[in-house]
């Protein structure tokens, strides 16, 4: 889980983390017939307006779990922009999860600043080298050295249209036309950022910017002469590496923010031995089971993709 937004934390030392991971576990011998080991690892971290938490259970005990912080602003100390990255392993497969809050702004050229943020995070994020659970090799040191990577958060990329034009396309549910003007997709096509990264198909309305505690975009409540924020998909989930398959990509309808949250569920192939992959036995049945828990409130996944 990742959350971005204003925070009282202003320095790299001002992050919230338990003195150690909260762990509850039972040994294999403590379980009844047919029961799996019960292990829960909960690791919350908050920093620079971003929050990240990861959990694991007895189906895949981590060989390691470490984190890295990257701040934005003056000398990396001021502002609420930055990233939290968590590195972990399940069996012989390494995972990295990045929660970031990139530079805001909808002026022409602001997307280049966001590109620079991404490159800086990729360059500066470093994890301490630790032995994995087999002891025969070291853990990844950089983000892209991991087998599977998921990047989520308020990436702040906007739609390069006027408020009126974008709002008209939203009302038509013409996601394709909106995505053709989405800065993130444009920058990816130009190979300026997130080269080789994947994102699921978007079948839901832009997640930003909403009026307080309402379902109206903020621009609807402003005078035509005032500066209005064009609706945009600021909140995204991307992934990198083989063995990851996205089952669902939807948005929620929580009103506690001027953003709407997005949710992604993935099916991951995990290497459990040097020559064997541990895979799900039933891909279709797992999709049915997880979709029972998704926040479908408007049936956006059933809308036509123009």
Brief characterization of the structure:
Residues 1-275 form the Inositol polyphosphate-related phosphatase domain. With 306 residues, this protein is α+β, with helices and mostly antiparallel strands.
Would you give an account of this structure?
Keywords: Hydrolase. Residues 1-41 are annotated as: Disordered. This is TYPE IV INOSITOL POLYPHOSPHATE 5-PHOSPHATASE 9. GO terms for molecular function: inositol-polyphosphate 5-phosphatase activity; phosphatidylinositol-3,4,5-trisphosphate 5-phosphatase activity; phosphatidylinositol-4,5-bisphosphate 5-phosphatase activity. The protein is α+β, with helices and mostly antiparallel strands. It is 15% helix and 28% strand. The chain has one domain (2-302): 4-Layer Sandwich (Deoxyribonuclease I, Chain A). The chain has helices at residues 110-124, 163-171, 175-180, 183-189, 283-291, and strands spanning 2-4, 22-25, 39-47, 50-56, 62-71, 82-90, 93-101, 148-154, 235-240, 244-251, 262-268, 270-273, 276-278. The strands form four sheets. It has a five-stranded mixed beta sheet with strand order 5-6-7-8-9, covered by helices on one side.
Number of helices, where a helix is a run of at least 4 consecutive DSSP H or I residues = 5
Tell me the fraction of residues in β-strands, as a range.
25-35%
CATH class annotation: Alpha Beta
Q: What is the CA-CA span between the terminal residues?
A: 31 Å
> Strand order of the main beta sheet, please?
5-6-7-8-9
Total domain modules: 1
As residue ranges, the low-confidence spans are 7-43, 47-51, 57-61, 276-288, 301-306
Under CATH, the topology is which? Answer: Deoxyribonuclease I, Chain A
Mean pLDDT over all positions: 76
| Radius of gyration, taken over Cα atoms and rounded to an integer in Å | 20 Å
Indicate the CATH architecture: 4-Layer Sandwich
